[in-house]
Amino acid sequence: MDLLTPELGLFFWTLIAFLAVFFILRKFAWGPILSSLGEREKGIADSIATAQRVKAEMAQMKSENEKLMAQAREERSTMLKEAKEIKDRMINEAKEQAKYEANKIIADAQLQIQQQKNAALTEVKNEIGNLAVEVAGKILRQELAASKGQEAYMQLLSEDIKLN
Amino acid sequence: MSFKRLFPLLILAFGLLGFTNSSFAQEAENHEIAHVEGTEGAHEEKKGINITELVFGHVSDSHEWHLFSLEGENGHEKEIAMPLPVIVYRPGKGLSVFSYGKFHGGWYLDEAGNHISNTSYDGLYVEKNMKEKIKSEDGSQVYDFSITKNVLSMIFSVIIILMLMTSAAKKYKKGEIAAPKGFQNALEVAIFFIRDEVAKPNLGHKYAKYLPMLLTVFFFIWVNNLLGLLPGGANFTGNIAVTLCLSLISFIVMVVRANSHFWGHLLNPPGVPTGIKFLLVPIEIISLFIKPVALTIRLFANILAGHIVILCVISLIFIFGALSKGVGVGFVPVSLVFAVFMFFLELLVAAIQAFIFTNLTAVFIGQAIEEGHGHDEAHAEAAHH
Q1: Residue A118 domain-assigned?
Q2: B59 within domain boundaries
Q3: C-alpha neighbours within 13 Å on the C-beta side of residue B324
Q4: Cβ-defined contact of A12 to B145 (cutoff 8 Å)
Q5: What is the percent of chain B with per-residue pLDDT over 90, rounded to a whole number?
Q6: String of b and e for A35-56 (b: at least 16 CB within 10 Å)?
Q7: How many other CB atoms are there within 10 angstroms of residue A14's CB atom?
Q8: How far apart are alpha carbons B64 and B80 in whole angstroms?
Q9: Residues B207 and B279 in one domain
Q10: Could you list the residue range(s) of the whole structural domain that residue B225 is in?
């Protein structure tokens, strides 16, 4: 039964020690530790929330970027296509132009050639005519010296006129 | 000197104290009893082992820190013990402070079977049975406030707790979030455990107000439990004065903080017929006072039982040794295995009992400060309509 009767002295010292420990620790240990732990927990929670938000933002930005890239790619391909079309058209136009020009030059040249040929022919005809007239004159001067000859020549001339 | 350097020293000191004690203590007790019997000059047949005295000598409080005995010449042995200061208050004579070493003259047995000190000092003598009592020769009342073994052990524990906690607290800088290092990690596990498993579930949103008290109770009991487990350590938390003091503190906190809702339900339970109230209210009042008693007994009995079991298992060696030396030596391994097993169990019990005490304190305070949701809202609703 001795064990079950509390001693006054031990009770007294325990009370004092416990209260001292309590007040000292509350001021110098639990206060700072608990507030720091609370701060840290809040900080960690905030950081995680921020990280998640940033992650979400990043994902969104990434998808946006991809969309932009796809758009750009599409634009580039359409531009290339258009450029090619323009190039083809220009080449074709140039070709057409060149052909037209060439044809025109050829046509002009042919016309000129024709004209010159005609002029040359006319000149040759005139020259031949003149020569023939000269020759005929010379002959006539000889022939016309005799009447017989005149008649024959007249005949010849009239036939010639009929031929013309 | 920083705490880091001091800690191994403390361990070493306790270790030396303990190992020398655990190996010599039983023999010391044995010889002491033999010595006492010898001075009486009779009872040679009782020279064996008085296990009751041995065990209770170890678990009781003492005015000296007994280390071991040396066997001197002519069968007399020298007790190696550190006498502790005696502080007694006698009404009329006032306070006297002196060393317990003043009672050095050995013991004689009185007719009631108590050991009485041969020497007296300042009108005081010591009566030792299961407990050491300092008594006045003229029979007047003596209030003993001595720094006993338990008090000294508690002072050690207080120093350890204060150093551990304040040194850890210094690492927390205000407004700075840093990962915990070293001892902080271990401490935080315990603090989070008390906060999240004990305080929050039982006390709700008001937990922060009671957290320092719960943490102090937890660490105070735990550290003292562990110090008590060290060989040669005192049985501090296995002493009913200590557990009574701690449970009274939680009881007072509970009663002081109790709100009107609690008292209302206790003294005038709503919705109960008047006849039943006469039966119910006394039971409720008794249950209120049983709470601290339950706290007191639970911690005291658990720690005391653990100490007694370990002592008994070790004592088996000497019981068998008294039969024959061979049997005693042969029993050493068995006894050691049991003792080591019990020691691990007690390490567990040390933490569990500290937790249970803290948890029940939180439960009791939680009941006392509980807001009356449900009923009161229902009453208010009814009043409105």
Answers
A1: yes
A2: no
A3: 3
A4: yes
A5: 26
A6: ebbeebeeeeeeeeeeeeeeee
A7: 28
A8: 10
A9: yes
A10: 150-379
Mean pLDDT of the B316-327 span: 84
Domain count, chain B: 2
pLDDT in tens, B98-152: 888 888 777 788 887 788 888 888 888 888 877 888 888 888 888 888 888 889 9
Contact list, B161 vs chain A (CB under 8 Å)? 21, 25
Do the chains contact at B304 and A14, CB–CB below 8 Å? no
What CA–CA distance (Å, rounded) separates A53 from A48?
A: 8
Residue-number span of the structural domain to which A93 is assigned: 8-163
The residues, any chain, with a CB within 8 Å of residue B184's CB and separated by 6 or more, are B168, B171, B172
Q: CA A119 to CA A107: how far, in whole Å?
A: 18
Within 8 A by CB and 6+ apart from B34, the residues are: B47
- The CA distance from B149 to B129, in Å, is 17
Among candidates B45, B1, B293, which has minimal Cα distance to B159? B1
Cα separation, B145 vs B133, in Å, equals: 11
**Rounded Cα distance, B185 and B376, in Å:** 44
On whether any CB of chain A is under 8 Å from the CB of B165, the answer is yes
DSSP 8-class letter at B75? G
Reduced to 3 states (helix: H, G, I; strand: E, B; else coil), residue B95 is strand
Question: Does residue B170 belong to any structural domain of this protein?
Answer: yes
pLDDT higher than 60, residue B37: no
Q: What is the count of structural domains for chain A?
A: 1
How many Cα neighbours within 13 Å face the side chain of B246? 34
Burial of B88-119, coded b for 16+ CB within 10 Å and e otherwise, reads bbbeeeeeeebebebbeeebeeeeeebbbbee
Residues B139 and B103 in one domain: yes
Q: Are B237 and B120 contained in the same domain?
A: no
Q: For residues A12 and A7, give the distance between their C-alpha atoms in angstroms, rounded to a whole number.
A: 9
B134 bridge partner residues: B126
Provide, as residue numbers in chain B, all residues whose Cβ is less than 8 Å from the Cβ of A3.
Answer: 56, 59-60, 130-131, 240, 304
Q: Which of A8, A10, A30, A35 would you mutate first to test chain B, the one with the most B CBs within 10 A?
A: A10
Q: Reduce the DSSP state of residue B143 to 3 states and report it.
A: strand
Q: What is the pLDDT of residue B329?
A: 86
Q: Is B36 part of any domain?
A: no
Give residue-wise pLDDT tens across range A16-29: 999 999 999 988 88
Residue from B236, B221, B214 nearest B161 by CA: B221
Q: How far apart are CA B76 and CA B36, in angstroms?
A: 10
- Is B321 within a domain? yes
Hey, what are B235's tokens? 């049985």
Q: Crossing angle of helices A31-143/B207-229, nearest 10°? A: 120
